[in-house]
């Protein structure tokens, strides 16, 4: 196993194929700069021949002075029967101005026949000619052997010939691609072992997650001597995604002792993962290995108890190694020890024998019985504890609200909310329209408070969830509303429960604002 | 490799440890019945000693006649220094009435010392005594060797001794647990190979996904002879989750040729995955291997082109094998065949070339684009098709509604709805209070219609669900409301989508009533 590994990120190209992701040139520039800071060696910027936006990216990224990363351009081999120098796709690759070019070619006879519709011999020439031509222009050339594993299962000698064509033409690295993501780890390992003796240039791996094995396959390839690993941040990519570079980096560094990033860069991993999710406008996955917000969250009573005795007992690594944090969740099942742990986090002096501890526990269990779920709403939980301990005074007092939703004969629906609040001894009346009743309430509340608490301008609501608790009660069912809010530094969840969805939303909204005001 | 594998689901216990999941007894019963239908051999129902709700589940599940699954109860070995027969935890396991009991014990000296705080010798006795005692009561006993791999890395001979204690006491299967989910696949494989010669009873595997290798580790264990695989539907579970049984089942069956479920059951996999997500109120993961809605979705131009030439080119399996579907994004070609299929179900005569088919398709795609999801609302879908084909006239026409929600200074909240309808040339004004705004609308609507359509007295709403579609929009987000209604013969789902939750609920309510009136 080689201890020197090149990391190759394709979030900007393969990652942008994810359903729901659409990156602007500006987004791409921000992501590239963040990956450069993390120390990723190669960042695949895009496919200049397929997407005009990508050329703009290549132009603009040159003006940013990246410190650690080389930007690469991606494209296919020349077309069948054409001259390489005149091939439009190959020309745009040169026009990108990148020093490193990644060329993909077909390693599967099925694809040569059905998709390229050319001969096996011509396909080998296309690979050879394109790599050779780009090398003659002074480029570093990576060859992506597309569908390599599927091709090898169908026709091993031909698949190997495509690699040798790229090697003979001077390819600097040859990447074995499991393009459809369907190869089992032991089959993939066998194939790599079989071809390795025939290839003298460094090998790389490009895995997809269609069978949930992308990370396993990438690590297996490294353990068999592959020196270059392709993937995307958070595993973004078409269908089930590419191999998740976050999990790969953490596993290589912590578990396999491969120094692919420095210790201090590794601590940025969680932040990078969230940054990229934000830039792609994707929800960050709570249960994502290493970097998810639940990755070190403990809920079961037995686990919490054990983690308090020895954190190593239910954690495979120290969360801070990857910049993540341990979290203890509060639930109906949790006991006194959880409350004490949380109080410590809030820097509150609370003892097990304290009457107040018992009081908070009873309050918590009572509310959870009514349908509250504080594990999912740490913001409301903190307010509950601090209210019980009289650690703060309410920032305002509601004297009443009224919400009207009206649908007219023409089918138009309008929502309007009026609020009466007492703030710092003044009575505030405000009203607002909104996109739906909760939005109208939200706007009216902010309008009433903003003059008194300008900090509220710096927070916004980022998620909103509704769960019906006792479905059988039909439209009279109790509902639980969860609201996530965030400012520049952090995010927090708050909760409300009621048979009335408007009232449940109001409670969650009020907690959201109170939490911001409490924390500043 | 053994071709006979037992599937063991722990969605109800380990899965319920997921942050954000909170299952009622009713939810658990529904999930267990669905898993039984899928043909899972063992369903871990819960931990009767740790959670009073679980005992209720064990009581109630007995009244359902499961066809394929055995329900198991989970618990720990007896406490240090106690008599097994008098141990409260062990007693509750017997009280569960389950024929199969899963006992977990510690295989790691770190845990014996720091968490149990007992001697290595006593821990071995605890394992032996508990298994022996339960066997003497005629139970099938599975032994979960908790932290087995971590324990083995620290002290291999002691870890092995814990397995042998369970084996000597008569354990029917011994499950090797990677409790912290941090073991690399090649390390896990090495350990299994090393211990296997010492164990004569069947071995099982229980993997967690903290390093993104849970599925790979489970498959590796099977290929080394483990005959029992534990996991959860959708990989739910504490921290980063357990091994995803959906991916495991599909890989075992399709890729490894292990007949763990029948071909026809395999086709239910996508539906089961979505059903469980819905029951857990979790968003179904779009990119989930095999069963995600993007798992066979093609976006890249090259890929779409190739898939149209030969679907196998960018798909590792045929999507219908697991009950999933190919989706071509940004294509108007998809869907026509579905419409024709559905029309046939409704006994409507519709042809592919029919202009009406095109019209329905456009309408459907437009609405799905806006957030409708007709797969989950067949009632509304049937109304949509029949409306488009002018197969019925609306039973009433809304001229307007108004909903008022008011909170007073004393904290009381009241909801009131007024509705103006035109029914059979009469104008009906009604008003009603309700438990929340939707319930008020519901009551006012029925009041208005009952004299004209007495059949409505025979239907009622049985389920009500709300999902926020674009969470990032905060309180202005679009919401999707699903309502299930039923009468003596059948049940049906209807849907509404709007930025205004009241309006979305109204639309779903109206469809619910119209469907009943249409079907009689």
Structure, explained:
- The structure is a homodimer of 520-residue chains.
- Chain A is α/β, with parallel strands linked by helices.
- Chain A folds into three domains: 6-279, TIM Barrel (Alpha-Beta Barrel), CATH 3.20.20; 297-357, H-NS DNA Binding Protein; 397-519, Alpha-isopropylmalate synthase LeuA, regulatory domain (Double Stranded RNA Binding Domain), CATH 3.30.160.
- Chain A is built from 18 helices and 16 strands.
- In chain A, the strands form four sheets. Chain A has an eight-stranded parallel barrel with strand order 1-2-3-4-5-6-7-8, surrounded by nine helices. In chain A, strands 11-12-13 form a three-stranded antiparallel sheet, covered by helices on one side. In chain A, strands 14-15-16 form a three-stranded antiparallel sheet.
- In chain A, helix 6 packs across helix 7 (156-168), helix 8 (185-195) runs parallel beside helix 9 and helix 17 packs parallel to helix 18.
- The first copy, chain A, is elongated and about 85 Å long.
- At the A-B interface, helix 4, helix 9, helix 10, strand 9 and helix 13 of A face helix 4, helix 9, helix 10, strand 9 and helix 13 of B.
List keywords for this structure.
elongated, 3 domains, 16 strands, Double Stranded RNA Binding Domain, alpha/beta, TIM Barrel, H-NS DNA Binding Protein, homodimer, 520 residues, three-stranded antiparallel sheet, 18 helices, eight-stranded parallel beta barrel
Into which percent range does the helicity of residues of chain A fall? Answer: 25-40%
> Which pair of chains has the greatest number of interface residues, and how are they split between the two chains?
A-B, 123 and 121 residues
Strand content bin of chain A = 15-25%
Largest beta-sheet details of chain A: 8 strands, parallel, barrel
**DSSP helix count of chain A?**
18
CATH architecture of the largest domain in chain A: Alpha-Beta Barrel
What is the distance, rounded to the nearest whole angstrom, between the alpha carbons of the first and last residues of chain A?
51 Å
């Amino acid at each position: 196993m080689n201890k020197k590994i090149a990391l190759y990120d394709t979030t900007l190209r393969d990652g942008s194929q994810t359903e729901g992701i659409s990156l602007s040139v500006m987004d791409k520039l921000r992501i590239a700069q963040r990956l450069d800071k993390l120390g990723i060696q190669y960042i695949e910027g895009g496919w200049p021949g397929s997407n005009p936006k990508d050329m703009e990216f290549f132009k603009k990224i040159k003006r940013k002075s990246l410190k650690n990363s080389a930007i690469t351009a991606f494209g296919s081999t020349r077309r069948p029967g054409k001259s390489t120098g005149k091939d439009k796709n190959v020309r745009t690759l040169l026009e990108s101005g990148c020093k490193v070019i990644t060329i993909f070619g077909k390693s599967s006879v099925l694809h040569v026949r059905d998709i390229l519709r050319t001969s096996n011999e011509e396909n080998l020439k296309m690979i050879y000619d394109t790599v050779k031509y780009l090398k003659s222009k002074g480029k570093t050339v990576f060859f992506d052997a597309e569908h390599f594993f599927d091709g090898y299962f169908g026709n091993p000698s031909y698949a190997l010939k495509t690699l040798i064509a790229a090697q003979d033409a001077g390819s600097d690295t040859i990447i074995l691609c499991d393009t459809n993501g369907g190869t089992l780890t032991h089959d993939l390992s066998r194939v790599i072992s079989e071809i390795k003796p025939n290839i003298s240039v460094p090998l790389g791996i490009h895995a997809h997650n269609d069978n949930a094995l992308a990370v396993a396959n990438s690590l297996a390839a490294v353990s068999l001597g592959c020196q270059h690993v392709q993937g995307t941040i958070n595993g973004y990519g078409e269908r089930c995604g590419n191999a998740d570079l976050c999990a790969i980096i953490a596993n290589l560094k912590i578990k396999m002792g491969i120094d692919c990033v420095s210790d201090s860069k590794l601590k940025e991993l969680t932040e990078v993962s969230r940054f990229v999710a934000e830039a792609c406008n994707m929800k960050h996955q709570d249960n994502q290995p290493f970097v998810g917000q639940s990755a070190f969250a403990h809920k079961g009573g037995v686990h919490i108890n054990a983690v308090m005795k020895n954190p190593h007992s239910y954690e495979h690594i120290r969360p801070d190694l990857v910049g993540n944090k341990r979290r203890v969740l509060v639930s109906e099942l949790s006991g006194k020890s959880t409350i004490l742990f949380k109080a410590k986090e809030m820097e509150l002096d609370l003892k097990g024998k304290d009457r107040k501890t018992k009081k908070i526990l009873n309050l918590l269990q009572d509310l959870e019985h009514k349908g509250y779920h504080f594990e999912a709403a740490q913001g409301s939980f903190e307010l509950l504890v601090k209210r019980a301990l009289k650690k703060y005074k309410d920032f305002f007092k509601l004297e009443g609200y009224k919400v009207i939703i009206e649908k007219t004969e023409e089918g138009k629906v309008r929502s309007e909310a009026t609020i009466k609040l007492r703030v710092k001894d003044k009575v505030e009346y405000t009203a607002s329209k909104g996109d739906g009743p909760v939005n109208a309430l939200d706007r009216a509340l902010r309008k009433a408070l903003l003059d008194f608490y300008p900090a509220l301008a710096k927070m916004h609501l980022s998620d909103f969830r509704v769960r019906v608790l006792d479905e059988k009660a039909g439209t009279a069912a109790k509902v639980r509303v969860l609201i996530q809010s965030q400012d520049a530094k952090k995010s927090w969840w708050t909760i409300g429960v009621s048979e009335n969805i408007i009232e449940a939303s109001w409670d969650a909204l009020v907690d959201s604002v109170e939490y911001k005001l409490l924390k500043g």
